[in-house]
Amino acid sequence: MLSYLGSFLAAASALTAAERVYPDPAVDMPAATGEQVAVFAGGCFWGIEGVYERVKGVKQAVSGYSGGEKSTAHYEMVSEGNTGHAESVHVTFDPAQVTYGQLLKIFFSVAHDPTQKDHQGPDWGSQYRSAIFYTNDDQKRVAEAYVKQLEDAKTFSHRIVTQIVPLKAFYAAEPHHQHFMDNNPNYPYIVVNDLPKVNALKKHYPELCKR
């Protein structure tokens, strides 16, 4: 959590990104019943979690760590940037209410900037990298297809650097990191960096927001 100026510039960039036109995924998951899981990483997990908690059909969003070993899945160690972990969010959702493709659209458009490599806004290090941890081959196929669709449409002026990798394990973060946005709505980092993402979600995708 670096300087306030850096945070302000990052938030301004996120708002500009939210004004782009993002296509609906041309490829999506096959119809399914029952709860499914998606895992996303895109900077500090507070903001990613806060966004997805407000999406209809999302039953639960949990902040945590993916990409490294269980023994290093602790905030102080992950923050050093050499554990292989990324701050991630485990999203449990009902595909009858929100599709995996729609979750991807939110991820690429308002939840983070997929063109920032090994950082996100004011936060730097591989633990803040952009990544999709897929749980099955269908998720991999849909994610790769949507990245190609965004690149073909030249949605971004810079290359998408999002990793699309298999989910090996997810480890929940410490309790005080869970629901951080809801529990700390006036925390300066949240106000500057994350509330603009929620506002963009409500503005651009009201039909996908919980009432």
A few lines on this structure:
By secondary structure, this protein is of the alpha+beta class.
Superfamily (CATH H level) name:
Peptide methionine sulphoxide reductase MsrA
- At the first level of CATH, what is the class? Alpha Beta
Overall mean pLDDT stands at 92
SSE order, one letter for each helix or strand: HEHEHEHEEEHEEHH
Q: Terminal Cα separation, in Å? A: 31 Å
Q: Taking strands numbered 1, 2, ... along the chain, how are they ordered across the largest sheet?
A: 7-6-1-3-2-8
| Count of domain modules | 1
Largest sheet: 6 strands, mixed
The total count of strands amounts to 8
Using the coordinates shown, work out and report the CATH topology: Peptide Methionine Sulfoxide Reductase, Chain A
Question: Low-confidence parts lasting 5 or more residues at pLDDT below 50?
Answer: 1-16
Helix/strand structural class: alpha+beta
Name the beta content range. Answer: 15-25%
Shape: globular
